Task: structure prediction
Amino acid sequence: MATNDSLIQVKDLKKHYKGGAIKALDGVTVDINRGDVTVVIGPSGSGKSTFLRSLNLLEMPTGGSIIFDGVDITKKKYKDAAGKTVKLDIDRLRQKMGMVFQHFNLFPHMTILENMTLAPVKVRKIPREEAEKKALVLLDRVGLKDRADAYPIQLSGGQKQRVAIVRALAMEPEVMLFDEPTSALDPEMVGEVLDVMKELAKEGMTMVCVTHEMGFAREVGSRVLFMADGKLLEEGTPEQIFTDPRSPRLKDFLAKVL
Amino acid sequence: MDSFIKLENFATVAKYSSLFAQGLLVTVLLSVFTVLIGFCIAMVMALMRLSDIRPFRFLGIGPDGYPRESGALAVISRFNPVSFIATAYVEILRSTPVIVQIFIIYYGIFGVIDLPNFTMFGFIKFNRFFPGVVALGMNSGAYLCEIIRSGIQSIDGGQTEAARSLGMSQIQNLRHIILPQALKNILPAIANEFVVIIKESAITYTIGVQDIMSAVNAVRGAAFVIVEPLLVATAIYFCLCFPTSKLIAYFERRMSHGDKR
Result:
């Protein structure tokens, strides 16, 4: 499925705190290609979550650029095709980037179905019936159609995360960002969430995934990025990264996690 | 020695029972309108306090391109005039006596603004009742503001992140995600504030609002008895506040039950 058609170009991305004393991201340059499953690995505190959250501007980078759909989203204004200066509408861009969080972040005061239809109805202005029909199809795909009227608190962790994934999918995003989607789950529930993600990868969804699941990175990833100290130290196919690591940091990391 | 409560005096008080009935109605109306006005003021003030309007933001960027950590410019760059006004409002109203506020509103502001001189239900003087409601409403607005603000701040940041990542605007996030959860959480606190207002509203008799306390005053003036009408007022206030707070406690328990499903 991998192509060379780049969807997000990240150039020299920086996130500094305390006048540059703390560098969560220190010059990351990478292209995210359409259809790729890009897996980001690295020790904790390496900046991988900050990197992911910068892609849809949940973290505002302090330097560098992120080109998404031909627009630099780190700038407040850009020039459109006709050369006119337009104000960047971050809400519209975020609709095209689905995000799944470590702690699910379902809306507890709404049923599963309401969780899934809120944004399509309010943001994309899709008629409620149509949005509900689509939500039920998505829920059916992850085996949770019968829980449509339940509240998040009634679901297990794995079920919640599956709902969170299809909630993001309901907005028909161009790319899905996963921020350690299985880290808060009981071990026996990790599999059901990874299965949904594998399914999604098979369908050709562009995915960027921060994870500690090395098995998943190996099996599903088309590309693996290794980050440490806010820098992108090594990148390559899963084979390259896992069987032929070059930098000592990566060797050290793999020795600890594999 | 004479007993300090005389039973026959209750018979005297009974002759003025219609005054107490009217006073009860006024107290209830006063409290309801106060909570409504107070809630509206509090909502605006809470959103103002949580706003992120910093007109001098640009001063906070140092020559090296990084945000300044300290110094006068950093302080100025963080200055939020909207939040400052709301904070000043809240702190001033919480740090001064209600009776002073009521007198300022009644003698000051409504001494200048003429209110129409009509009566509601045939006996409530509007030009007394209205300043009372405004003053109490402004006062409880300050307290409710802090309740609403803490309610909004108690919602997990992940909720906002999830809403924004779905493409919802800041206002949509507030309207559909944050406020419904925050208001549900603070409902008991708002109801408690209602009980406090019922009791505090007694002070409005000083500007001639005909509430329960003013009935006590009327009986004292007409029949020269004071303890017995006060005891009647005590009983009425208790019968208003105690069941209300018990009802709140009941709903609070039921709502927390719902959370543990």
Observations:
- The first helix of chain A runs from residue 48 to 55.
- The CA atoms of residues 136 and 145 of chain A lie 6 Å apart.
